[in-house]
């Protein structure tokens, strides 16, 4: 299909507000999910998922606890978990594929932070 000026495909055009991450599903018994949450702790979000899908706690594994007050994104696995998304008021769980092992803290390469400073009076670089 030919490109038009309004489709965002013109050279030099920058897409804003869109991010794409591609993961190739593997095989294994563990369903891999991305958890996007806001104003809810990791344990509370995990408990809501467990209750909604009626899953035993020992089947869920995640990398770490994320800040209750921040908008966060993290990964988790569920042994024989449903191959579908779950959307709730304070979190969205997106199914990404199957993996052979549960996800743990040691599987993370690190954390990326985006911090907004509002009305800083004086900034001191340390």
DSSP strand count = 5
Tally of DSSP helical segments: 1
Biggest beta sheet attributes? 5 strands, antiparallel
**Helical percentage:** under 10%
Output the radius of gyration.
Answer: 18 Å
Structural class: mainly beta
Query: Biggest sheet: strands side by side, in what order?
Result: 2-3-1-5-4
The gist of it:
The protein has 126 residues and is mainly β. 10% of the residues lie in helices and 25% in strands. It has one helix at residues 42-53; strands spanning 30-38, 60-62, 71-79, 86-87, 91-99.
Describe this entry's structure for a reader:
The protein is mainly beta and 126 residues long. 10% of the residues lie in helices and 25% in strands. The protein has one helix and five strands; from the N terminus they run βαββββ. It has one helix at 42-53, and strands at residues 30-38, 60-62, 71-79, 86-87, 91-99. The protein has a five-stranded antiparallel beta sheet, with helices on one face. It is elongated and about 50 Å long. Mean pLDDT is 77; it is low at 1-15.
């Amino acid at each position: 299909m030919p490109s038009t000026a309004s489709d965002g495909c013109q050279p030099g055009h920058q897409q804003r507000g869109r991010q794409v991450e591609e993961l190739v599903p593997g095989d294994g018994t563990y369903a891999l999910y991305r958890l996007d949450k806001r104003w809810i702790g990791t344990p509370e979000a995990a408990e809501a998922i467990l209750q909604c899908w009626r899953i035993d706690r020992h089947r869920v594994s995640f990398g770490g606890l994320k800040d209750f007050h921040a908008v966060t994104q993290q990964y988790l696995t569920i042994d024989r978990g449903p191959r579908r998304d779950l959307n709730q008021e304070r979190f969205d769980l997106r199914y990404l594929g199957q993996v052979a092992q549960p996800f743990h803290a040691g599987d993370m390469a690190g954390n990326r932070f985006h911090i907004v400073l509002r009305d800083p009076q004086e900034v001191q670089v340390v």
